[in-house]
Amino acid sequence: MKKIIAAAVTVTTVLSLAACGGNTAVDKSDCLDVPQDVLNVVASGSDSSGLKPETGKAVKGDTEGTYWLAMKFTADGFNGDTETGIWLVSSAAPVMSVDGFAKQFTHWPTQINGTELNGTEEKAKAAAACLA
Predict the structure, then answer these.
(1) Helix, coil or strand: residue 43
(2) Among 107, 115, 70, which Cα is nearest to 88's?
(3) What is the structure's pLDDT at 77?
(4) Phi, psi (5° rounding) for residue 32?
(5) Which residues, at least 6 apart from 26, have a Cβ–Cβ distance to it below 8 Å?
(6) 44 vs 47: CA distance, rounded Å
């Protein structure tokens, strides 16, 4: 419970995201930089995979205070390589794991009202395009 509250507080107070550089697949004004503190909150949902956040971009969700976040990260056994995972962060709920990598490396919830998140959501794809 303490971790969920910390995530909500951090997302609420720290997610002052600034517009990022462009990508042809998504309007560049929709891409937002993600502060390291928020990336650390997402990574705090890792079990013991040695997940270390590298960088992240986000797009605003359809609900106020909600962001779809793409994060490049390393983990034990990656030999310095990075992978990208997608998470949903909100000021009103815990962090949520969206795609396969997010689900594999963190233990955040994966459903909204019984609907499984899977990374094919338009906002998830937009966040990934911002980071590409």
Answers:
(1) helix
(2) 70
(3) 82
(4) -125, 140
(5) 59, 126, 129, 130
(6) 8
pLDDT for res 13: 38
Q: What is the mean pLDDT of each run of 10 residues along the chain (132 residues)?
A: 43 43 64 96 88 96 95 88 95 91 94 95 96 90
Give the Cα separation of 21 and 112 in Å (integer): 30
Q: Is 74 helix (H, G, I), strand (E, B) or coil?
A: strand
- Residue 25: the pLDDT is 58
The enclosing H or E element of 35 equals none
Distances (CA, A) of 61 to 3, 32, 68, 109: 22, 12, 6, 17
Pairing of strands 111-112, 32-33: unpaired
